């Protein structure tokens, strides 16, 4: 009975987001849809700026790597980080090798999505972050992989913390073109 109630609660959290249409003129082959415990976020991937990173995000989404992964590091006025489908705490990466940096001159501002990495510029793997506000200190130092085109209000609702106690999660992540 408890499992059934938990399942119904999870559906209620995601169900309103599923009914939302995707933005018009969205290149669905280069966008991901993240259904979270707070609602839906749609990210336009910038394969023109970071083709290897965009392909990695799509690969991991298609493998289900991001499903039920928490937003483990969420700093007020800065960013929300997620994508550790291995350890769920920001210390893990995927089974694939790290990616070489694909830096651009796109500035880090509200809604920009970047790849997380260690101090090594060529260490991005699976984790990414969404900016709450401008972050010029990241410009040219972290790979921009996309931009939120719908759901920044959802990003704003993500529980804060470093680490986050009882974090919000990406319940399901899909490439937009795969959604039937």
From TrEMBL:
User: Domain named PPIase cyclophilin-type: which ranges?
Assistant: 28-180
Q: Does the keyword Amino-acid biosynthesis apply?
A: no
Give the keywords, sorted.
Isomerase, Rotamase, Signal
Which EC class heads this enzyme's classification? Answer: isomerase
One biological process term from GO is:
protein folding
Q: What is its EC number?
A: 5.2.1.8
- A Pfam match is Pro_isomerase
Q: Which SUPFAM superfamilies match?
A: Cyclophilin-like (SSF50891)
Give GO MF terms, alphabetically. Answer: peptidyl-prolyl cis-trans isomerase activity
Q: Which reaction does it catalyse?
A: [protein]-peptidylproline (omega=180) = [protein]-peptidylproline (omega=0)
Source domain of life: Bacteria
Q: Cross-referenced InterPro entries, in alphabetical order?
A: Cyclophilin-like_dom_sf, Cyclophilin-type_PPIase_CS, Cyclophilin-type_PPIase_dom, Cyclophilin_A-like
Signal peptide range = 1-19
Q: Which family would the database say this protein is a member of? A: Belongs to the cyclophilin-type PPIase family.
Q: What does this protein do?
A: PPIases accelerate the folding of proteins. It catalyzes the cis-trans isomerization of proline imidic peptide bonds in oligopeptides.
What is the name of the protein in this document? Peptidyl-prolyl cis-trans isomerase
- Which source organism? Bradyrhizobium lablabi
What lineage is on file? Bacteria, Pseudomonadati, Pseudomonadota, Alphaproteobacteria, Hyphomicrobiales
């Amino acid at each position: 009975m408890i499992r059934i109630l938990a399942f119904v609660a999870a559906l209620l959290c995601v169900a309103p987001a599923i009914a939302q249409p995707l933005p018009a003129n969205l290149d669905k082959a280069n966008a991901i849809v993240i259904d979270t415990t707070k609602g839906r976020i749609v990210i336009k991937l910038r394969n023109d700026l970071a083709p290897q990173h965009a392909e990695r995000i799509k690969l991991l989404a298609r493998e289900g790597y991001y499903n039920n992964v928490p937003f483990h590091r969420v700093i007020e006025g800065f960013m929300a980080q997620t994508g550790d489908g291995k350890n769920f705490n920001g210390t893990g990466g995927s089974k694939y090798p790290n990616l070489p940096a694909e830096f651009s001159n796109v500035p880090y501002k509200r809604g920009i999505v970047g790849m997380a990495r260690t101090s090594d510029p060529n260490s991005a793997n699976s984790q990414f972050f969404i900016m709450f506000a401008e972050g010029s200190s990241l410009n040219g130092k972290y790979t921009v992989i996309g931009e939120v085109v719908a759901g920044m209000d959802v990003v704003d609702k993500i529980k804060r913390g470093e680490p986050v106690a009882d974090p919000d999660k990406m319940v399901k992540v899909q490439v937009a073109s795969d959604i039937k």
